[in-house]
Amino acid sequence: MNKINNIIPSAAKKGAFLAPLAGISDLLFRRMARAQGCALAYTEMISSNGLIRKTDKTYEYLRTCSDDRPLGAQIFGADPEIMAEAARIVEASGVDLIDINMGCPVRKVVKSGAGAILMKDPALIAQIVRAVKKAVKIPVTTKIRSGWNRSSINAVEVARIIEDAGADAITVHARTADQGYSGQADWKIIASVKKAVKIPVTGNGDIRQPSDAVNMLKETSCDAVMVGRGALGNPWIFKGIAQIFGEQQENYMPSLDERLEMIENHWQMEEQFRGEKLSRKTFHKHILWYTKGLDNSHKFRELAGKLKDKESILHELNEYFRSLKTCES
Predict the structure, then answer these.
(1) Is 104 a catalytic residue?
(2) What is the C-alpha separation between 242 and 240, in angstroms, rounded?
(3) pTM to 2 decimals?
(4) Given 38, 65, 104, 222, which residue is catalytic?
(5) Minimal CA–CA distance to 134: which of 80, 174, 93?
(6) 4-245: which CATH number, 3.10.180.10, 3.90.1170.50, 3.40.50.2300, 3.20.20.70?
(7) Backbone angles phi, psi at 151, to 5 degrees
């Protein structure tokens, strides 16, 4: 039995998958998601050219540990031979599967001929998948978009080509490339892909709360669900999804004390991971995500954006949460 037949279905029964999020889903973020019930995680997308050139920053994306499993490494590029060589390097790092990015809409990636623009060149997609599949023994998966734009929805066509080229599974982000991350994901595209291929299909797009994962499974019959931006500032979403999948009562929202403790622990881990100076910059976005949607958070978020040192930010953070608890009582 192909290893992918074990990885995807087995993980899907336990909970949702963490999407490969550029600038976010590093080892630390993945471990935090896993602690809350994430069943399978992916690295940030990794440049195949960077791997071939052996740049230190690129290799940093492959940083992992024993409890960071199962792990998929996502690579991007437009040259089949370079992608194949990059896949060999990734396989040697010990990951469980390789995912090929065919959905990133970022201009820099698209201009290089990689990412979502590949949706416009199905023939090249087939070449890349075949080359990567031939180069490694571990499972090879792909992540695509609905299409390049609304007038060229071709996810079903591309999915069939990907399957014929030998890929072991496919993830569908149900937005077009020109949508970016705006607008609503069209889950009907996921359902159409699922009907068109025999390999496992993971659905991605608009999973913001546990009930969304259940609804996606019901509406699309996909094999698994992937959470992207819905996990930002909300790692507890994986706990909620795991509870539902385990037929437990949904009870995943943290108390204010638990939320504050998570923020402080996350920052401390960020310091250990990156160093004190760099973590002050990298953690700022997490503070904004963790407090988004809370009562009067706009005032704290505005203030936090102006403060430069950790002590001041933590002081204001504790004062803000103290005010929230006072309003609750």
Answers:
(1) yes
(2) 5
(3) 0.95
(4) 104
(5) 80
(6) 3.20.20.70
(7) -90, 0
